[in-house]
Design goal:
The protein is of the alpha+beta class. It is built from four helices and six strands, in the order H-H-H-E-E-E-E-E-E-H. Strands 1, 2, 3, 4, 5 and 6 form a six-stranded antiparallel β-sheet that branches.
Length: 174
Amino acid sequence: TILLLLFNGSFFRPDHWSDISDSEKLSGGNWDLAQTVSINDYLPIDTSLSPAKKASDMPVVLSGSVDFVSFEKGTDWQRWKVNVSADAVVSAEIFYFPNWIAYVDKKKVDFNYKDHNGIIALELPAGGHEVILKLNDTPVRIIGNMITLLGTPLFLWLYLRRFGKVLHLEKAKP
């Protein structure tokens, strides 16, 4: 570890140091910048341009006429109820990642992300619809979750087994 730090320490220096307070950093334009400045580190491969601003909290109507009756979202899902008066294309304001699935009126539908800089966009016909978007786990994520699920109790058992004996011996000394 020491050799790693010695040989690579130059990579761990800030290239710019800002002498500002927390309240200045977390307000106004600095807050807006803080929400998007690292986005390039996490952009999916289907994205060619980094976003100029934070994504909208609501889906964005790209074409057509859509009235949002309700909208809910979590970190890996969205649910909308919409009334579409003319065929529409709606951006979910989510970058595509493998295993996103879209349902319109409980039927699985295809969506486009390649023509929208990696952002999921759905075509909706006229009428009332319920739209559900869900990110399902990838095989790699399932394996990682299983390792965590099995590894955490194993780690605790080994830790308590090792250090529990030490604590037990210390208590036993007169």
